[in-house]
Design a protein that fits this description.
- By secondary structure, this protein is an alpha+beta fold.
- The protein has one domain: Thiolase/Chalcone synthase (Peroxisomal Thiolase, Chain A, domain 1, 3-Layer(aba) Sandwich), CATH 3.40.47.
- Helices cover 37% and strands 23% of the residues.
- The strands form 4 sheets. Strands 1, 4, 5, 6, 7, 8, 9, 12, 13 and 14 form a 10-stranded mixed β-sheet that branches. A 3-stranded mixed β-sheet has the order 3-2-15. Strands 10-11 form a two-stranded antiparallel ribbon.
- α3 crosses α4 and α11 packs across α12.
- The protein is globular, with a radius of gyration of 20 Å.
- It starts with 5 loop residues before the first strand and ends with a strand.
- The mean pLDDT is 97.
- The structure holds acetoacetyl-coenzyme A (CAA).
- Acetoacetyl-coenzyme A binds next to α2, α6 and α7.
Length: 420
Amino acid sequence: MKRLVGIEALAIAAPRRYVDIEDLARARGVDPAKYTAGLGAREMAVADPGEDSVALAATAAARVLRTNDVDPARIGMLVVGTETGVDHSKPVASHVQGLLKLPRGMRVFDTQHACYGGTAGLMAAVEWIASGAAAGRSALVVCSDIARYGLNTAGEPTQGAGAVALLVSEQPDLLAVDVGLNGVCSMDVYDFWRPLGRREAVVDGHYSIQCYLEALSSAYRGWRERALAHEVVRWGPSLPGEQLARVLYHVPFCKMARKAHTQLRLCDLEDVPNAPATTAEAREERAKAASSYEAQVASSLGLNARIGNVYTASLYLALAGLLHGEADTLAGQRIGLLSYGSGCAAEFYSGVVGEKAARRMAQAGVEAVMASRERISVVEYERIMNLPYEAPEPLAPAAGTFRLAEIRDHKRIYVEGAAS
Ligand code: CAA
């Protein structure tokens, strides 16, 4: 019998501080509408050196295990997808294993391919379980990143930080993945990268958008071919992409999801079999339909607009945002998910929202995480950005969170705030 495999539960972690995006625009002498309407941002998470990728990953991972009362002996694989690693050799996942005191009998590793690294880890976990090799065990996949372009750069309003932890198992209460339908596309391009030793990414911003859309097109068409063959979708009065209840995208900034959705629709409109001849302009106009974006995409972007880019975690923050608001409505319905990582790789896959998704999301405590954050001024944000990353401020961690306390003899020492 075919196994149901997918995401059983999730939890998010966000830095304790954020800056309002309109404050940032005013400080930069930019019309705030460029950041709000032009990029779709509202707030931007600001991580201080104590909130590194390990601390954020451990906080999210501990939260998903604690709030779902998971026995750690169930976990046979721990993967962290990140492009903000803290060591050339020792994986972030190994720190997380130690901080959470997880048992030794598990595979522990990081996956890296820019923002795609989290999905690479998730698919390794899903296919490990689907193959039967997991023999009933579960996986913990954590996506954790700090998006950093630097002060006064074009990328500055698209920064952010955070983590999403996913419990993956044969009890996919949140999302049962359609194993084997995935469409993928990889290309060797220089659209965004971070040379060794640099804290800030180097990015060819407008080219990166082109690469994203090109890779999306191939990945989506690959998924659609398999989905049509399995009769998961069909050509008919509605387009294949329209048969997905929602479509979630990698979200470097919210406006990108709108561009991505237009591109996905364009793929369908260009490929409709036996369609009456239309002009490219007419197809583009239909692809841009605001009603389709509002119905299929907009409701997933609430958390992304308030946290900013979280690289590997961005797609899963969109999943958290969607299910936080709509788990009940979507139970039993199929959604599509597009992961993109610069460099580049894209993967489109689908899954069915579980009947218990609303109950699981209530346990995730998303609202409490967001409400615990503090708004800071642009001056304070700039002070934090200029702190050396190897000397974290001596702040006490909030209850249930981890912080980097110091680096001693090249070893990173973390502290945990007692869970309340
Ligand atoms: N009112 C309303 N809208 C305004 C406006 C105003 N006053 N002024 C400008 N805008 C609009 C523009 O028309 C534009 O919208 P469209 O794209 O729909 O035309 C939008 O605001 C942005 O304006 P610009 O393109 O002029 O902005 P920019 O050149 O300063 O930078 C950026 C935008 C390229 C995204 C830059 O922020 C950047 O480099 N970000 C980092 C790279 C990135 O996020 N790439 C995404 C794809 S790669 C990826 O996804 C991987 C990843 O996570 C990094």
